[in-house]
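QA checklist item 7 of 12: single-chain prediction sanity check.
[x] sequence parsed
[x] length recorded as 154
[x] structure emitted
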Amino acid sequence: MSVSLDVEPVAPALFLARGVCRALDQLGYASLVEFPLANGRRADVLALGKTGDLVIVEIKTSVADFRADRKWATYREFADRLYFAVPNDFPQMLIPEECGLMVADPFGAAMLRDGCTIPLAAGRRRALTLRFARIGTMRLRRCLDPEALRLDAT
């Protein structure tokens, strides 16, 4: 008897996101994946620190992924620091010096370099922190009640 499971393969970026979130948790950050920003983009990971600092982690699974995607520069205006998370075999010299660097796998991530800190304006920080709280709460509620109507997705 053969059993077939119709399970979609998990994208490599999701595995790296899991490792990044585990590492951020150990550093005292709460994190959300696929965080929608006010400019219409989505940050791979947005993390909120104990002191209110905000960090965006852009995940790149390959050199082709990195070279094809230049929208990451627009994320700077939504975080105090910007990091790239890459797999171990990624050529690290491609990552811009002003950005932080993490090497990640599904089980964790190692911080190799801190990103340059450019503090957010108070109004932007407040708006992002409130959005972080609302989105996190709505995602948790959907876990508890998957059939709940989403009246406000953002």
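[x] summary fact logged: Residues 1-9 have pLDDT under 50 and may be disordered.
[ ] second reviewer sign-off
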